[in-house]
Amino acid sequence: MSLRAKQIVTGALALTGLVVGLWAAAWPRGFYDAFPGLGHHWVSTIGPFNEHLVRDVGGLYLGMAVISTWALARPRNETFTMVGLGWLVFNLSHAAFHLRHLDELTNRTDQLGNAVTLSGVVLLALSLLLPPRRDPSRTTEPL
Question: What is the pLDDT of residue 46?
Fold first, then answer.
């Protein structure tokens, strides 16, 4: 995978972390009641509101946004690998939980949207673990 492609993926993850993180950390009740927005409710179907937990999740997303943004400013394959690992560790358990509880969402559109977005974040994180694309201008391997 090219360094530029990894920058694009990391930018998408940083934006995700920023939007979700700010909403959950600054307005936890609104996040709980209305995430992901546009009349859908993916969080409030899971259980009772817990401000502490929602704010902590917001902080986690903001932390991931900070690390992702830092990687964008220092584009190196090793840095993108660490960002991918961080997002993957967090989102494997996050996605696994929600995928096991899709039946708590009230309609197929929400179930599909939840499954696609959560799986998408896992796939984006995995893509950052792909080896760097080989530079075709190099004629010899480094020692």
Answer: 86
